[in-house]
Each structure stands twice: as structure tokens, then as C-alpha cells.
Amino acid sequence: MHDMNVSIFGLGYVGAVTAGCLAELGHGIIGADVQQAKVDAFNTGVSPIIEPELDGLLQTAKREGRLSATTSAAEAVANSDASIICVGTPSLESGRLNLDFVRKVSEQIAQALRESGKTHVILFRSTMLPGSTRTMVRDFFEDLRVTGQVRIYYCPEFLREGTAVKDFREPSLAVVGTHDGLEPESEEARQLLGGTPAVLAWEGAEMIKYSCNYFHALKVGFANEIGRLCKFLGEDGARVMDVVCADTRLNISKYYMKPGNPFGGSCLPKDVSALLSFARQEGISLPLLDNTLDTNHAHLDLLIKLITSKGTRKVGLLGLAFKADTDDLRGSPMVAVAETLLGRGYELRIYDPSLNLSRLIGANEAEIQRRMPHLASLLREDAREVVEGSELIIASQKCVKPEDLAAWVTAEKSVIDVNGWRELKTLPWSYEGLCW
């Protein structure tokens, strides 16, 4: 990998760490910041922030002649092959994102490139809401991007304060956003930021940063709600969570992290409800738990709205149980969908190979008798009858071979894919996903 000269705009947390770590890899660094004090610190090899190992990295870079800083954007661009934009994106009073610093820097870099005519690579690293990079490019760089004078990537950072240098050296996640979601035209983003990056469109890369932080916030909120409940019970919440985290197959995993079906089954809805009514009865405020069922209901409403918007009353369900390879109908979102459609006079056909009504017993049978007593008349032994007899198919389980479907599907039919069965997209019907 050839060493590059890199300008870093914004010498705050992310910028300073990025500078120190890139210098360690042998690149030449030009820092750029509007604050003279930060520029002066950099020029003497002193870190503007406190972070383990960073002082040493910057001092070494200074000693070896690979570190300088300036308040002039034009100078920084003139002396570098690539610019990494790390300026702050603070919140406005309204809670909205303030992109003024990013806009200012973008404008200055674009002007410098127009005047010099040099080719350049720009990596946006500042946290920005989805759509922001595209807006910056449209407002400042579009002509330069089209002619190939500038290549622009969005590369979110996942540095934790206190372990930022270590996190830079071994990224937990590497993401490169390109304008069309295709592989980058050149290697700079990968060379500079390391890891094995996932490549998405700019908006997807921007969304990943927010998804991670939203999830981390949810985890903290969740652990604290468990802590409040434990405290009330006289139990040690930290110990309870330690034991919960000892299960790395389900609890620290990607198992439940797939957009699709609302949650269902005989456990999750019932247990969430029970815990919620216990907390309410005892007067413990747990807003996350409060809203867990609501968000699930909202997701189910979206699915039903999607189905009813299609304008046909002949609907086929592939899969009725709450997940594949089980005959459990309790709390199944698909049963709720079927119930709603029947209530509105839709003509339903259902195929679910795991379902044998004569074998349903106990609570499972009781629930179906209560909610859909005439289920037997809707079930078909053969998936073909369901597909051929319906105009709209709701696919919640991979319970039919794609090659069989290919023989039955026609252009007049449409399908809603609930759980990400992507082969359905290749068939000649009109395809829509629930979350994609």
C-alpha cells in the first residue's frame, strides 16, 4: 500500500484519533481546523484531546516530519491526495442536526479543487442523517464528481472514547458508502480506514451509524429497566444481566435482528404483557417495556395496510404458524392477519406444511378454536392450490420450493415477502418486501 498525504478537517475527537493512527501507518497528515489553538497544538505534536496512546502517536509523527496543521482549507487540499471530513455535527435547539460546519468545509474544499483542477478523494466521517452526503454532493461537488475529478465516500466511525486508538486499529465494523452502492472505484477508503468494509449507498452507510447508536441506547435502556425491576425485588441487577449475557447464542447475537414479522409465539407477547402489568401495578416506570407491544402492533398494522392497499380480495398465505418448522399458532402475527382479512370479507387460502389440525392439542388448539374456528376449511394440502387460486400471496415462511413456485406464478399475481425470502424477487410476479 502506498503512503498518501491526507488532510483531516476537524481536529476534535474523531479527527485527532484518525490523524494519529494514519500517521502511525506511515501517511503524511495535514490537520485543518478553524480553531488556531488546535492547529498550534497539532503543529507541536500535542493532542488536543485526552485519549490513551494518542500523545505518543502524534509526537512520533511530528518527530518524523509527518504531521502539520493549518487553518487554511486551500492549503490542506493542495498538499493532500485525500481529505477526511471529521468536523462536528452538533444538535440545534430543535434537536435537529446542525450541518453548518460540514457545509462550510465542503464549500471550501470544492472551491480549492475547482481552482487547482487536481483530482481528489473525499471521505465524509462526520455523523450525518441519511441523505446528508447526497445533499452535500448536490450542493457543492456534483460537477466534480461527474467528471471524475473527485471521488466521494461516506465512512462512519465506530470509535469509543477511551479505547479509540485500539478501535481504529481493529475496527469492530467497517463501512464505505458510495453514490450508487457499488464497489468503490478506488482503494483509498479501504487503505486508510482498514477492516473489510461493507459497501452500501451513501444513505445506507449513514443509516448504519444511527442504527448502531440507537441499538446501543436501547441496550442501555433495557439493562437499566431490568436493573430497576431487580432493585425493587431486592435482587442484584448487575448479576442478573451478567448471567443473561453469558448466553452468547441468543442474547448476544444477531438471531432476532432481522426486520420482518412482528414478534409472536406463545412466549414473547404473553411475557412482555405480564411483566408490563406487574411493573404498572407496582408503580415502576419502564417506558421501553411500555412501548414494546405498541411498536409490535404498529408493525402488524403496516403489514395489514400493505395487504389491503393491493386492491384484491383473493389472498393466499404461505405459512401461518409464528415461525417455520413449528405448528405453534399462539400469538402468530399471521393468524392476526388472517383473522383481520376474514373479518373484512376476504377470500383466504392457507398453506402451512407444519400444520396438522388433527394433531393440535391444548392451548394451541383452544386458541385456534376461539380465533379461527373454520381454519380447516381454509387450509390447503397443496401449495399449488393456494398460489393458483390467489391474486396476492403473503409469504411468511420458506415452505415451498422456488422451482415449484416458478411453474405456478404469473405476471398478474403479486407477493408480499414478510421475512426476506429473496428468491421470490426473481419470479415473474410483482414483488414487494415488508421492510425493503
Automatic annotation (TrEMBL):
Its EC number is 1.1.1.22. PANTHER family: GDP-MANNOSE 6-DEHYDROGENASE, UDP-GLUCOSE 6-DEHYDROGENASE TUAD. It holds the Pfam family UDPG_MGDP_dh_C. Residues 316-424 form the UDP-glucose/GDP-mannose dehydrogenase C-terminal domain. InterPro entries: 6-PGluconate_DH-like_C_sf, NAD(P)-bd_dom_sf, UDP-Glc/GDP-Man, UDP-Glc/GDP-Man_DH_C, UDP-Glc/GDP-Man_DH_C_sf, UDP-Glc/GDP-Man_DH_dimer, UDP-Glc/GDP-Man_DH_N, UDPglc_DH_bac. The keyword Oxidoreductase applies. Pathway: Nucleotide-sugar biosynthesis; UDP-alpha-D-glucuronate biosynthesis; UDP-alpha-D-glucuronate from UDP-alpha-D-glucose: step 1/1. The gene is algD. Signal peptide: none annotated. Belongs to the UDP-glucose/GDP-mannose dehydrogenase family. It catalyses: UDP-alpha-D-glucose + 2 NAD(+) + H2O = UDP-alpha-D-glucuronate + 2 NADH + 3 H(+). Keywords: NAD, Oxidoreductase. It is an enzyme of class 1 (oxidoreductase). This is UDP-glucose 6-dehydrogenase. The keyword NAD applies. Transmembrane segments: none annotated.
